Amino acid sequence: MIRVIIPYHLRNLAGVSGDVELDVSAPVTIRSALDALELRYPMLRGAIRDYETQQRRPFLRFFACQQDFSLEPPETELPEAVAEGREPFLILGAIAGG
Question: What is the pTM of this model?
Protein backbone atom coordinates (compact mmCIF):
# COMPACT_ATOMS: atom_id res chain seq x y z
CA MET A 1 0.00 0.00 0.00
CA ILE A 2 1.19 3.48 -0.80
CA ARG A 3 -0.21 6.72 0.55
CA VAL A 4 -0.97 9.58 -1.79
CA ILE A 5 -1.76 13.09 -0.62
CA ILE A 6 -3.68 15.11 -3.17
CA PRO A 7 -4.63 18.81 -3.13
CA TYR A 8 -7.92 19.94 -1.68
CA HIS A 9 -9.60 20.59 -5.05
CA LEU A 10 -8.72 17.06 -6.25
CA ARG A 11 -9.92 15.53 -2.96
CA ASN A 12 -13.25 17.27 -3.54
CA LEU A 13 -13.39 16.00 -7.12
CA ALA A 14 -12.62 12.44 -5.98
CA GLY A 15 -14.95 12.65 -2.99
CA VAL A 16 -12.30 11.80 -0.40
CA SER A 17 -11.50 13.62 2.81
CA GLY A 18 -7.88 12.73 3.46
CA ASP A 19 -4.93 10.68 2.28
CA VAL A 20 -5.59 8.01 -0.34
CA GLU A 21 -4.20 4.49 0.11
CA LEU A 22 -3.55 2.48 -3.04
CA ASP A 23 -2.29 -0.99 -3.91
CA VAL A 24 0.54 -0.55 -6.37
CA SER A 25 2.63 -3.48 -7.58
CA ALA A 26 6.40 -3.19 -7.55
CA PRO A 27 8.21 -1.39 -8.96
CA VAL A 28 6.38 1.70 -7.71
CA THR A 29 6.92 4.41 -10.29
CA ILE A 30 5.36 7.81 -10.84
CA ARG A 31 3.32 6.29 -13.68
CA SER A 32 2.14 3.25 -11.70
CA ALA A 33 1.11 5.43 -8.74
CA LEU A 34 -0.86 7.82 -10.99
CA ASP A 35 -2.38 4.92 -12.95
CA ALA A 36 -3.59 3.33 -9.70
CA LEU A 37 -4.97 6.67 -8.48
CA GLU A 38 -6.88 7.27 -11.73
CA LEU A 39 -8.13 3.68 -11.82
CA ARG A 40 -9.60 3.97 -8.33
CA TYR A 41 -10.87 7.52 -8.88
CA PRO A 42 -11.71 7.81 -12.61
CA MET A 43 -13.00 11.35 -12.12
CA LEU A 44 -9.35 12.40 -11.67
CA ARG A 45 -8.43 11.35 -15.22
CA GLY A 46 -7.33 14.43 -17.08
CA ALA A 47 -7.02 16.49 -13.89
CA ILE A 48 -3.49 15.37 -13.01
CA ARG A 49 -2.19 14.34 -16.44
CA ASP A 50 -3.21 15.35 -19.93
CA TYR A 51 -5.53 12.79 -21.56
CA GLU A 52 -3.51 12.48 -24.74
CA THR A 53 0.12 13.03 -23.77
CA GLN A 54 -0.07 11.74 -20.17
CA GLN A 55 2.15 14.69 -19.21
CA ARG A 56 1.78 16.29 -15.79
CA ARG A 57 -0.58 19.27 -15.73
CA PRO A 58 1.42 22.53 -15.51
CA PHE A 59 0.34 23.64 -12.05
CA LEU A 60 0.76 20.31 -10.30
CA ARG A 61 4.00 19.12 -8.70
CA PHE A 62 5.05 15.67 -7.44
CA PHE A 63 7.10 15.18 -4.27
CA ALA A 64 8.34 12.19 -2.27
CA CYS A 65 10.77 12.06 0.64
CA GLN A 66 11.48 15.79 0.34
CA GLN A 67 12.50 15.42 -3.31
CA ASP A 68 10.83 17.05 -6.31
CA PHE A 69 9.85 14.41 -8.88
CA SER A 70 7.86 16.81 -11.07
CA LEU A 71 10.29 16.85 -13.96
CA GLU A 72 11.33 13.21 -13.75
CA PRO A 73 10.21 10.71 -16.42
CA PRO A 74 7.06 8.72 -15.54
CA GLU A 75 9.10 5.49 -15.31
CA THR A 76 11.13 6.90 -12.40
CA GLU A 77 10.88 4.66 -9.36
CA LEU A 78 9.69 6.34 -6.18
CA PRO A 79 11.79 5.97 -3.02
CA GLU A 80 11.53 2.74 -1.03
CA ALA A 81 9.89 4.60 1.87
CA VAL A 82 7.01 5.53 -0.45
CA ALA A 83 6.72 2.00 -1.87
CA GLU A 84 6.52 0.63 1.68
CA GLY A 85 3.90 3.19 2.77
CA ARG A 86 6.14 4.86 5.35
CA GLU A 87 6.22 8.16 3.44
CA PRO A 88 3.52 9.65 1.19
CA PHE A 89 3.63 10.52 -2.49
CA LEU A 90 2.49 14.14 -2.59
CA ILE A 91 0.71 15.83 -5.45
CA LEU A 92 0.70 19.56 -4.79
CA GLY A 93 -0.95 22.43 -6.58
CA ALA A 94 1.57 25.11 -7.52
CA ILE A 95 0.70 28.74 -6.99
CA ALA A 96 1.48 31.35 -9.60
CA GLY A 97 0.94 35.04 -9.70
CA GLY A 98 2.62 38.32 -9.24
Answer: 0.92
